[in-house]
Prior knowledge:
This protein is of the alpha/beta class. It is 41% helix and 18% strand. The strands form 2 sheets. A 10-stranded mixed beta sheet has the order 2-1-3-12-11-4-5-10-8-9, sandwiched between helices. Strands 6-7 form a two-stranded antiparallel sheet. Strand 11 and strand 12 (270-274) form a beta hairpin.
Amino acid sequence: MKDLTIAVLPGDGIGPEVTAEAVRVLVAVADLYGFRLRLPEYPIGAAAVHESGEALPTLTRNGVREADAILLGAVGSPALAAAKGNRRPEAGLLALRTLLGTYANLRPITVHAALRHVSPLRAERLEGVDLLIVRELTGGLYYGEPRGRDDDAAVNTMRYSISEIERVARVAFRAARARRRCLTSVDKANVLEVSQLWRDTVSRIAAEYPDVAVEHLYVDYAAMRLITDPRSIDVLLTENLFGDILSDEAAVLAGSLGMLPSASLGDGPGLFEPVHGSAPDMAGRGVANPIGAIASAAMLLRYGLDLGEAADHIDQAITTVLLAGARTSDLARPGETFLGTREMGEAISRLVLSGGAAEPHA
């Protein structure tokens, strides 16, 4: 029996609530597939600031280094919105990515047939949409120097090296090769020198993957294509800031940010988290959608622990529960009955354990 350690970082806002349901499902699938889990919890973000004075304390740094994979909830708190340095909750997340060297962020966008009506787009436009955003995660404006602010001005620096672009491009090309063999690289090469380097480097790496078709789009046109013709996109590769924006835009295809998982991969243990933020206005009410966190747990099994069959089992349970009519508040039509955070987690967990059909929901 395989022993595996998953460091659990619940974080802030709705993070602890959705993470608890992801852990519930992980425990269920571990029982089914016969591996043992250690699930130590560590603070990050505002929770860590309140506990220790910094957003990524030494305890958490040491814990994630020793783990096989990391499951994260969300970070952020309005009470610390004006905090500086390592007391800013989001600084803990950026520091965690740097610590783990997770330079490639994978964000799949799958439109479940049962949820096409949830998106504001026409259902026929969403048929067959299945795309993967590969976002560079440890460079660009979020990390570049110099940076700072004074009374009269502020500066941030977008910087990329060739090696940084090469490594994330290869992740995207390998992903495309395993999918429909189409890669769309996004930049702003008509304006930015950094984007010109990006385009030149991706074009050069493309020669290593002659079986993958490549197109280059400016980011503004890519944003339009995501809405007007999402089926035309297979793998979308882009830098940090553009990827952050485009992946949130793509949430409209799936119907809710609460549906979307992510995997952040690099040279060490992977980091897996739902795309949504801490949503402090929803915290403690038990109404947050845990599916993004549960799907992130499936990605953890697939990409972090090489347990693809167990990951498939979770993904199928999510699909089956939705087909049976289960909805959280963000997915329900006006007046439609919906499940709370824990209820949805329990429904998916039961299905994982039973391997059978979900009970229909009114």
